[in-house]
Amino acid sequence: MVYSASSAVAAEMFSGDSGFFVKRYLVRLILGIVILILFASLNYQKLQKWSPILIVIGLGFLALVFVPGFGMTIRGATRTVNLFSMTIQPAEGVKIALVIFLAYWLARRQHVMERFFTGFLPVLAVIATTCLLIGLQPDYGTAIVLAATAFAVLYVGRARLLHLASAVGIMIPVLFYKLYSSAHSRGRLMTYFERFFGNSADQAQNPQGADYQLQQALIGLGTGGVFGNGLGQSRQKFLFLPDPHTDFVFAVIGEELGFLGSVAVLGLFVVFAWRGVRIARMAPDAFGFFLASGLTMLITLHVLVNIGVVTGMLPTTGLPLPFLSYGGSWLLFCMMSIGILLNISRMTYRRQRLQYD
Predict the structure, then answer these.
(1) Most buried by CB count within 10 Å: which residue of 104, 181, 244, 333?
(2) What whole-number distance in Å separates Cα of residue 275 and Cα of residue 77?
(3) For residue 141, what is the enclosing H or E element?
(4) C-alpha angle with apex 96: 95 to 97, nearest 5 degrees?
(5) CA-CA distance, 268 to 226, in Å (whole number)?
(6) How many CB atoms are closer than 10 A to CB 271?
(7) What is the pTM of this model?
(8) Is 315:189 a contact under the CB 8 Å cutoff?
């Protein structure tokens, strides 16, 4: 799918080299498999003592984005760090680091999580700092999904609903203020609400407006029908649909593989979510339970938001579809997450076998 969705864009950008993106993707995929095997083999419990260091390093890289000479601004957003001729998106790694830290905190502070000052407030400060640094890039979509993941893990970790609701009540006005103060984000929000409550005739008169990307995605999904136009037969990828190989790859899937292919992809993600929940429920310790829950929630929320955007159910954001969107940092950290989940599952099986013996 990465090759099919990116071939036209790659040929246009790189002098006819239609395989440019897929060749880079395969290199990252191989590296991701190595990372997966490594983390599937290492004992996940060792991550506990490293979790405070990992979150501090992650926050340091997020701050490095704003240092002149290190941060790279692309399409008006400074999300990438140029370090020793390597480009890194720190937000992708911080997602995993924050989940590991939350699992560590909840496993050690379970007995005080219902208390505000000693249990909830310190971890809320870490979450707020992380999301604030990501939001300042600006990358509001990632900040929202990460905050939602963190609050879901805290809820599972028996944080008081009153504390969570109070924090959300404070964050929502701040979020809307930031979204409204950004012309780009405000345009996307206004377009989203106009889609449901506005005049359809006015929208039709502005086909090149802020909703253009979604319109092209819906055309692709609609023309795919039940069975699709066939693998490689997308028309929208020929420079009609922006970012067909990254944020909107699901539109190409729907056009080429049809409704049945789209449902099959969704079914695979449902299986992943089910297995992740099962691994969490059977984890041998509290840290494994919270870690598996957080990683499963993080990837599943990315899937829901990405597909919600492509189908017009949510405002447009820049979140990729896990495993299927072209990218480097996010793919590697997704593979790392799978490795950790596999390791938790293996440790559970090993403990059960020892108890049986």
Answers:
(1) 244
(2) 35
(3) helix 140-156
(4) 95
(5) 18
(6) 10
(7) 0.90
(8) yes
CA-to-CA distance for 341 and 71, rounded, in angstroms? Answer: 32
Reference 325, options 252, 233, 217; nearest CA is 252
User: What does the alpha-carbon distance between residue 232 and residue 56 come to, in Å, rounded to a whole number?
Assistant: 44
Copy the structure tokens of residue 102: 């939350």
pLDDT truncated to tens, each residue of the chain (357 aa)?
899 999 889 988 888 888 899 999 999 999 999 999 999 999 999 999 899 999 999 999 888 888 877 777 776 667 777 776 677 788 888 999 999 999 999 999 888 888 998 889 999 999 999 999 998 888 888 899 999 999 999 999 989 999 999 999 988 888 888 777 777 777 777 777 777 666 554 554 455 556 788 888 899 999 999 999 998 888 898 878 888 888 899 999 999 999 999 999 999 999 999 999 999 999 999 999 999 999 999 999 999 999 999 998 888 887 899 999 987 788 999 999 999 999 999 998 877 776 665
| DSSP for residue 321 | P
Give CA–CA dist 105/51, Å, rounded: 9
